[in-house]
Amino acid sequence: MRNRFFSWILFLSGVVLLIFTLIAAYREMTPEWKKYQAQYKEQIIKTAKDNAVRQKAGALASEVQQIYLGALNKIDRCVSCHIGVENPMMDNAKLPLKQHSGDYLKNHPPDKFGCTVCHYGQGRATNKKEAHGIGHDTHWDFPVMPLKYIQSSCTQCHDYEMLGAKGYDTIAKGAKLFTEKGCRGCHKLNGIGGALGKKLDIVGSQPIAYFPMRFVEGERNTYNWHKQHFADPRVLVPESQMKISVKPEETDLLATYVLSLRSGEMPKDYRKIKGIMTVGKPDEGEALYKMFCIACHTDGKQSYFDEIFNRTIPAIVNKAFLKTADDKYIKKTVEEGRAGTQMTSWKTAAGGLAEGEINKLISYITKERPSAKPERFNIAGFKPDEKRGEELYKVRCALCHGKKGEGELGINLRNPVTQAADPEFLALTVRDGRTETPMPAFGKKGIGLTEKDIADVVSYVKTLSKKK
Amino acid sequence: MSELKQSGIDSFKHNIKSAFKSFASSFLRSGKPTSDRSRAAAVFNNFFLHVQGVKTHINTLRPAYTLGLGLISFFLLIITIISGVLLMVYYSPSIEHAYNSVKDINFVVFAGRLIRNMHKWAGEGMIIFVLLHMARVFYTSSYKNGRQFNWVIGLALLILTFGINLSGYMLPWDQLSYWALVIVANIIQSPKELTDSLGITGFFDIGGFSKELFLGGLTAGKESLTRVYLLHIMLLPIFLFIFLGVHFWRIRKDGGLTKPDVFEPKAIDAALIALPEKKGGIFPANKTYGLMELAHGKTPVVDRDVENTVLSWPNLLIAEAALFVLCLAGVIVYSFFIDAPLKELANPMIPENPAKAPWYFLGLQELLSYSAFMGGVGLPGLALLGLGLIPYLDREEQHLGIWFSNKQGKRVAIESLIASALVIIGLLAFVINFGWFRSWWPNVPQLLITLINPGNIWVGFMILWSVYVIKKTGSTRMGAIALFTMFLISYLIYTYVGTELRGPNWDFFWSRSEWPIH
Fold this sequence. Notes:
Chain A is an all-alpha fold and 468 residues long.
């Protein structure tokens, strides 16, 4: 060939081009996460107890896994490697395949919360270095948070008191230290505090560039900065005038606390609502009663049949009721509500009342409880006959409480609270009735059932929820 | 009847069998390039190839003459276009999504990171190779003899190359993008310094207006990104393609690349080319193929040098193919090992310190640190004017197509190189050690600094030195060599200083490792 020079260039560059195209394609097709997903599959197939699981694992596709969190504007691809995070079979597996520790995911399902909302790191990344944000060259401001500070993430949705009460000590103690070390003398938080130091409102979510990292030991990130800054502010910032004296073990607690001071709010849907008290309303029982109960129960002294609900609304301040029902029973009713009726469940997870608020409400309702206890029925001493109870029920009770206990004039007896109620309480109610309500006393002083009759009826009522 | 039918089916069968062949021949139109005639036809019958002559001068094929710089620039452009279109599939030009879409290109798009790297490096490679190409054209006197205007178009292409690179730099919307955008907006605003000192900003705020037009507001924000994106993918490329078309067309009309008046093929040339087979054909041995014979003026060269031409197919085409594959391989290898930077998400609250423009503008930023107006508008304007005027002020027509014209040219270039390096480094050392007017007399009027600053002194020196060279040698070409050499050296040195030696607050540091770590 006569065009030797150019032919050689063409040939050699072509070879280089081909080689690098192939290497690049190979690099693209063998990302880190594929290796972990293969291990995961292998481990499941090895440890699975039945074939169905094994087959399911065998059919797992090898692909990038991601959790799209529209409300949080996040995409977390962490589960591409941490693929066993929800799988109990991965309990003892090694990282990254290991199941998430504790039962946190039960209340924080990954498809709603993702990973980086608590753990930080770069959710979009698909290799370890960049996903964990390790090293300055990843240019990621929020590397994966060391677990010793992880409780700082809880406060995005939960309040410090609740966390303290549930044993999340690091954050609770940190928050307490903050109030006891005179921090606010110089630093403003939520607009309150001195002006000598910097404002702390969003200090926990400020990027690395805000902090002078020059003298930080170890990885240069905000976590280490905060800890070392609490140990000795002047090591990191020579011109600092910060006054602080804390024990070495307290630096982590304070660091956890300041890391919890973040900008931005979680969407309401994510936050654990802290109860109505924090909204700034009076916390008295009466106010709570007016706020939540009065629309249906009115003053609570008389029960009445409600045309719209098509059922009787019970008199909850009624003395006869209070005489038989103890606080525990009432509290259970308020917390769980009455399924099948209009009565709402008021516990924190549902209606959103804090436990203390429910207690206040109950002490208001039971304010006028008669001091005299009802005469004991002692139902445990009877051998009830359910069949007989059923016959009696049909004659005596079904008119008001419905054939299946679904309630109409009388209350719904099938609901879980009544079903779980102490039989003694039910027997007392049947025997003595409810004064000033349509529920008559069925005992000897009233309609005249014997105690054996009552015990039979109660035993039948307790089976109502199983009847169709 | 049946015979006819039979033959119809037969010919149909035959057509099916030869379908590919007839498609190929309809596509190529002139059959296999086996004879000189068909080789020539392969070029002039092809829409894409016919911008090139059917015959190419041997000098054009000598690697040491052109170094392939113009072609490399063009091939890099092709690589950026293809990779850019691929990136556009995923990129989202809004400040909410831009950064994340680039992250996704890096992390989940198949080969996304490699494609982005190729786009970035091929694009920035264009700057280097366009500048080198300009230098080659200059030093071989290829801006003369009818090619004057093409030199000006080349300058326009250089500016467009800068513009496209710059606008692309801003699209990822990371800290680099944002603060480069801020710096560039300030460069655009720099006439304000002059209007301020003249006290006419109130009536005539050209700097402020230009900045607002560029940013789509007073500060960098979502409108700025939309505008920059528009510039990057549409406006600037359209102009680039138009000018590029004219640039190529004029080369063709000027009879191909320049070559020495006296040309003797050397033995080594035989390795580069396939010598023509003298079999007659439609081309008389002493003529290039030419409709151009009909053209007016002195542009088509019809009766000189014909001896030393060879057929473009295959000689030129194989050289071009080799260069293209070389470019592609080079870009892929570089992109394989070195990632295009992507820093933190843009944050207007955290100024990068130093906030730097892209590297190719850091020379300007150094001049900008002396005087905003001169660095941003005055001196670059003057430099472009000077470069554009070179072919009109130097009209000597000897020594075309010869590197540095002659021995004297080489000496002038080396002398200018040494003189300019000494003067620039001296000026820099002076400024870094002693400061300038503002550090001596804090209340000095800004107008005085605008008029007298190291940048202006340097440009003044360039002009004086060139005039001195013209006077000494009696040749405008020598003056041009001096001027252009000094321009290149100053671009190089100022860019290096701005990139490597300037740290936070634009203070001087011997190396990046001495920067105070924030």
